[in-house]
Description:
Blueprint: E1 11-16, E2 30-31, E3 33-36, E4 39-41, E5 51-60, E6 65-69, E7 75-78, E8 102-106, H1 126-136, E9 140-142, H2 185-196, H3 203-225, H4 229-255, H5 271-277, H6 285-311, E10 315-320, H7 329-333, E11 338-339, E12 342-346, E13 356-357, E14 362-363, H8 365-369, H9 374-383, E15 389-392, E16 401-405, E17 415-417, E18 422-423, H10 424-429, H11 436-440, H12 446-453, H13 457-463, E19 465-468, E20 471-474, H14 481-487, H15 496-503, E21 508-510, E22 518-521, H16 529-532, H17 536-551, H18 555-570, E23 576-579, H19 589-596, E24 600-603, E25 624-627, H20 636-642, H21 645-655, H22 668-679, E26 685-689, H23 690-694, H24 728-732, H25 735-747
Parallel strand pairs: 8-9, 8-26, 9-10, 10-15, 15-23, 24-25, 25-26
Antiparallel strand pairs: 1-2, 1-5, 3-4, 5-6, 5-7, 11-14, 12-13, 12-16, 16-17, 18-22, 19-20, 21-22
Helix pairs in contact: 1-6, 4-6, 12-13
Amino acid sequence: MHQVRVPSHLQLAIVGNTKKLGNWQPDEALLLGSADYPLWKGSVMLNPGQSLEYKYVLIDPKTKAAVEWETGNNRTYAVPYGAELIVKTDVDFGYPGGEWKGAGVAMPVFSLRTAQSFGCGEFSDIKMLVDWAKHVGMQMVQILPVNDTTAKKTWVDSYPYAAISVFALHPLYLSIDELEHTINKASLEKKRKELNALPEVDYEATTTFKVDYARKVYKKAKAKWIKSDAFQAFYSENEHWLRPYAAFCFLRDKYGTANFNEWESHQKYDDKEIGKLTDPKSKSYEEVAFHYYLQFHLDKQLAGASDYARERGIVLKGDIPIGIYRYSADAWVEPELYNMAGQAGAPPDDFATEGQNWGFPTYDWEEMAKTDYRWWKQRFTQLSRYFDAFRIDHILGFFRIWETPFEQVEGIMGRFNPALPIQLDEFYQRGVYFDFDRFCRPFITRELVHQIFDTDAQYVLDNFLEPFHDRLQLRADYATQRQILDTLTQDQEHLKKRLFSLVSNVLFFEVPGSGGSQFHPRIDMQKTWSFRLLDGYTQGQLVGMYNDYFYNRQEEFWRGKGMTKLPAMKEATNMLICGEDLGMVPACVPDVMKDLGILSLEIQRMAKNPQTEFLHPNDIPYWSVCSPSTHDMSPIRLWWEEETPDRRQRFCNRELGWWGDGPDTCTPQLAEAIILQHLNWPTMWTVFPLQDILAIDGDLRHPDPAAERINVPANPQHYWRYRMHLSMEDLMAADTYNNRVREMLAEAERSA
C-alpha cells in the first residue's frame, strides 16, 4: 500500500472478512509496517481460491481503535492457485474528504532573477522561490538538473542534461556573496549590475567570472579552510566521487579538453596513479583542491536552500538525467558501465520528426547489475542530500533506451535496446522474399536524387554517389551520417540534411553478429521513399511485422527489464519518485510505475489515450503529476500561437466548453481557464512552469511569448539561457496577482 498521508501517531492496517484480517474487527487487524515509507507493507498466509473482502483503516496502535476507515465499496481479491508468493499492491486510501492534492512551481535555477544574483539564478536564490511558493499556498518547488556540465567551457555546456559528473554541482550556481572573503567590492558590484541587466543568461561570462573570483577567494582562504572540520567531514563523506572528479577537472584544464582519449597522460583511469596526482604533497594538489573548494561551497549552499525549504514545509524536487556526457568523469572512471558505441535519444515525435540524439553513451545494464546497481544507488543517495522528491528524466530508458549507433547522427537511425529482433524466417512465413540489399541498404535511384536535390542533383551524382547494381550507393567516404557531418565543407553544408535522408532511406537494420538472420525495423519506415516504391502486398506484410515488433512482442520483455532495475533504484531512497513517461510509451509502463508507487507525468497537449486529442480527466491517475507544459515544450502562450486554428478551436469548444470563436492569442482569461482545469483535475500534484502561471496576468507576463521558451529538443545545439524578465522581489510584491493565485489554489483545495 502506497500512502504518504498517515499521521505519525497512527498506523495503516487492513481489516477484512477472514481471521487473518481480523474478521472486520479493527483490534485484530493486519498492521502494516512503514520501514520502506511511503510504502506500507504487510504479509499474511492465505488459502488458494479464497475470496477476500477488505478495507484499509487508520489504527491508533496504543488503543487498537479505528480512527478512520477508507470510504467506498469493499476491496475484493481472489487468491490464485499455484503461487507460493503473491505481491498485491494498492495505491490509494479512500479518504472521506478526498485524496490529498498539492501544487507547485517549476523553474530552472539558472532562470531565477534576484537583485543579488550575478546574471543567473544561484542556489541561494532558491530560497526566494520557496518564499513565493509558500506565500501563495504552494507546497513544491521543482528545478532542472544542477550537476556540473563544464566540458568545453563554452555556451554549449549550458545543456543541463550533459553532466561531466552525476555527483558534482555546477559552479554557475555558486553564490560568491557567501564565500569567506569579499575581494574588490566596487568592481564586484559593477560586475553584478552588468550581468544582472542582461535579459538572458550569458553562460560563458557568468561562469568564467564566478570561477575566477572563487579562485581568488580560495587563495586567501585555503590554508584555514582545508584544515577545517567542515571540509574534512565533507571530503570523507564524498571522497568516492570527489577525488576522481577533481582529478578529471585538473586534467581537463591541463590538456584543454574533456575528451580523456586525447590527454597526454591518464587516458585510462588508474586509482593508484590518481592517488599520486591528488596527494596533498603533489605539485598539482593546490589546483585539485580548488575543485574540492568549489564543491564544498556548492554543496553547502544547495543544502542550505534545501533546509530552508523543509523548514517552511516546501518540497524541493530535483531532476535526475537519464544519461551522462560521453567524456565525463563517470565514463573515465568506470568505462565498463557504458556502451560508447551507442548514443541515447528518443524516436521521432511531433516535436522532433527526425528523432532525438542526445549523444550520451547508453548503459551496460548487465555490468551494472554485477554491483547491484551501486552507481545508480549512489546517485540517488547524493540527491537525497538536497531533495525530498525527484523526477527521473526519461524513465522509459529503464525499460528500453532508444539507441543510435555512433556512426549515425539523426535519432531516426536508432532502435530500441534491448528489443527482440525479427527473425529471417518471419519474412518467408509471410510470403516475403528477403532481399538484403533492397531492405537493409539505402535505396537510391537517379529519379530519387533529382526529386530530393533538384538543381543540386547533378552535383550530388558527381561527388557523393556511385553505381550499385541497377541503382546507386553513397561513396565509401559518405556512407554514414557521421562521415557526411565530418566531411562536408562549408560550401556543401546546405546538402547535409538531404544527404542524411539518403542514408536513412532504409527499411531494416541488421543485428550485428547475427550473420544476416536477425533484424530491427527502422522507425517510421512507412514514410520512406524505399517503402513507397514496394508493391502493395509486400507493404502490407511489412506493416504487419512492424506493428507486431513495436506494439506486441516486446511488452513482457520490457516489463521484465523495468521490474529488474527500478525496484533496486527505489530501495535506495525514501524520496518521492516521479517519472517522465512521455513519448512512445510501452503498454507495460503504467502498471509497473503504479506497482512501484512512481508518479507518472501527464501533459494536456500530449494525451496518452489515442482516443482523445487532449488529456481527459478520466484518464488521469491520482498517482501523477500534471503540467500544462515542460521545459522541452512551448509554454502555453507560445503553444497557442504555434497551434493550428482548427485545433485551437476544438480545444476551446471541447475542452473548455466555450462558445464561439476562440482567441488567436493566449489571453489572460484563456491562460487562467487552462490553469483552473489543471487545479481541478484528480492528480496528486499539479506543477506549473512559472511562465504558464504568470500568463494569467496581462501586466506581469513577458511581452514576447517566444522569449519564454527554455529548450527546443529538436535542436541539439540549443542555448539554454532563458531568464525571468521580472525579479523575484517584484513577484513577491505583486499583491493583486499573488492574491489571485492564492484564491485559485484554495478554491481547488490545493492550498497549503
